[in-house]
Amino acid sequence: MTAICDLAAIEAMDAADALGPMRERFVLPDGLVYLDGNSLGVASSAAFRELQTAASEEWGQDLIRSWNTAGWFDMPLELGDRVGRLIGAAAGQTVVCDTTSINIYKALHAAMALRPDRSVIVTEGGSFPTDIYMAEGVVSTRPGASLRLEGIDAPTIEELIDGDVAVVLVNHVNYKSGELRDMATLTKKAHEHGALVIWDLCHTAGALPVDLDGANADFAVGCTYKYLNGGPGAPAFVYAATRHHGDIRQPLSGWWGHARPFAFEKHYAAGQGIRRFLCGTQPILSMRALKGALDIWDEVDMAALRQKSLGLTDLFIALVEDRCAAHGLELESPRDRAKRGSQVSFSHPHAYEIMQALIARGVIGDFRAPSTMRFGFTPLYVSYVDVWRAVEILDEILRTGAWQDARFAVRSAVT
Ligand SMILES: *Cc1c(COP(=O)(O)O)cnc(C)c1O
């Protein structure tokens, strides 16, 4: 431990970090240690420029012509391919649109329709809740359909997969613990039973490399406002493997997914390929901010990103356990780096208050009920010295009991 407890050694890690200069591209308030890019990624100058151009020139001056002249109409597919590179999807299989919740709905129905003789959806009891809620919604609209939950109907997801299962909806990285699943192995297991898999990549896209095509995945969904830095409410993405394209039906059959939207035909005819996952008009200003964010991602080598991510999370765990051992924090994330996404969670009975005290001192993470403090590590703009500073401040809050101030117990709507 002595080596990493030395600030000079940590400054040397930043000096040697090839991704270090990327931080300049982001708009980060001075002195802020931002460890919440797994909830809302940081703005970039590139995103602001895109927003400005889209608003003042394209909307402001060119108006309706911009659908053609500024490429607005094709943006969901163009940006989809750029997200695709980050998640191991060859071109033509990913489209940016709607929200993750809505894309889960579309993908679940599409998967169920591909397995008409089966009625069961399997997902995780410990999933980010919207995934479960959307699965419940799908079940409620399909007579005879039912839901099996890991942790409730059986301890592991693998035990729930049999010949009745149409589709498995599963997170690659758990939102709370940061635990990583083996995509290729679970996909293979589901396929052996004839089931399809939808991978939720909300905590994967922009956090670590993943190979959807290589794992033979069927579908995937994910959001772009977390690690991808697309901005608050930026549109999500949905992936479907090419082999399914001809047969995919999804129920939100709006005109943007039509084969000939501007023919204004009387009846729906599904568009070619991944385009059929589109529904209606997309939020172009949000798409443009995402485009700016993806301009930065185009330059990023995902293997280098993963190396730094693991360096940051390893350092955070080591420093917290060294400095704060006496204060009852328990590691909730995998100690084994190979099983860890790009976040670290610690539990504590007063996690909420401690997190508020951290935020008041400029270290931003978040709280997940009932007792988790979650820290996201985003290698494009978080430095090793940020990790050091965060732990210094955490240690101070715990040692002095500063978190016991009554104002830190007041709960906000968004935690
Ligand atoms: C963040 C997150 C979502 C968010 O869904 P929205 O529809 O964009 O609000 C969904 N699933 C998981 C696993 C998430 O982490």
Automatic annotation (TrEMBL):
Pathway: Cofactor biosynthesis; NAD(+) biosynthesis; quinolinate from L-kynurenine: step 2/3; Amino-acid degradation; L-kynurenine degradation; L-alanine and anthranilate from L-kynurenine: step 1/1. Belongs to the kynureninase family. Keywords: Hydrolase, Pyridine nucleotide biosynthesis, Pyridoxal phosphate. Catalyzes the cleavage of L-kynurenine (L-Kyn) and L-3-hydroxykynurenine (L-3OHKyn) into anthranilic acid (AA) and 3-hydroxyanthranilic acid (3-OHAA), respectively. InterPro entries: Kynureninase, PyrdxlP-dep_Trfase, PyrdxlP-dep_Trfase_major, PyrdxlP-dep_Trfase_small. Homodimer. It catalyses: 3-hydroxy-L-kynurenine + H2O = 3-hydroxyanthranilate + L-alanine + H(+); L-kynurenine + H2O = anthranilate + L-alanine + H(+). Its EC number is 3.7.1.3. GO terms for cellular component: cytoplasm. One of its GO terms (molecular function) is kynureninase activity. Pyridoxal 5'-phosphate binds at residues 100-101, 128-131, 200, 203, 225, 255, 281. GO terms for biological process: anthranilate metabolic process; L-kynurenine catabolic process; L-tryptophan catabolic process to kynurenine; NAD+ biosynthetic process; quinolinate biosynthetic process. It comes from Ferirhizobium litorale. This is Kynureninase. Pfam families: KYNU_C. The modification N6-(pyridoxal phosphate)lysine is found at residue 226. The keyword Hydrolase applies. Its cofactor is pyridoxal 5'-phosphate.
